[in-house]
Amino acid sequence: MLRISRAAVALALAALCATGVVAQGRADDFPTKPIRWIVPFSPGGATDIVARVVGQKMQEAWGQPVVVENKPGAGGTLATELIARAAPDGYTIGGISLNFTMYPFLYPSFPFNIQKDFTPITLVARIPSILVVTPAMPVNSVEDLIRAAKASPGKIGFASGGGVGTGGHVAGELFKKMTGVEMTHIPYKGGGPATADLIGGHVQTSFATTTSIVEAIRANKVRPIAVTSATRFPLFPDLPTVAESGVPGFVTEEMQGIIGPAGMPKPIVDKLNREIVRILNLPEVRDRLVNLGATPVAGTPAEFADYLRTESAKWAEVFKGSGITAE
Length: 327
What we know:
Keywords: Signal. The protein is of the alpha/beta class. The chain is built from eleven helices and ten strands.
């Protein structure tokens, strides 16, 4: 029979306590050098703006540089690989958008597990899309669009700015699955070209993010018929949600979040989370996000982890059997 002496137990407990004290001590001193913030897209987009606005405030509070590095390519997977391979010491973090939750389906060769190989830090914001149609199209509601799509299967095209796996694309795929209609995805390289073709009548409809379509709506260049979020959009309070318009349960929004590599010490994750949440609640930062068309969110790492699991499961169901891939 194996016997463990009291002395051995005491030494083990002391070691565990010491480990906790060291981790907490590192968090108390953190950061002692520059923080690297990796952005998976080009400068100027929402993920980049979040990094620069929040990073500047972190730098002011902590007295250490926050260096934003833009690493676009392969739908963001190049940047997230860099995050996964970084030392889990809190000095490398990164921004993600909704397509992170779809890597297993869109990029089957992506070598990391999005649930196990990253540390969620916080959800930053949700960005709804608005279902819009070209003004020449005789459609004024979601019901009208469903009727038109069923009358001409596959002939109505929906544009997405950014291509496969972006918010506009997956919103359209979810709409197709939940309504039983056939529409054709027409990918564009960005929101600008997609909106231009929508205005010009070269494509009939789009699930366009609020950040890219608000000005065209205000100028009456496109016709909004519904918003994709669970609640109405504050800038257009009379615009119904898709769920209100006859597709119950339909909700999809772009998101901005912050992650690190797996294995980060909890005290450092918590310190990063507390500081970022504090910054997100500053009036000038909230106003900047709202002006981007975003709904600020500031939660715990556990809440963000639950959100990522829920979104990934939802999109797995949407893409199952579709044959859609970005590779």
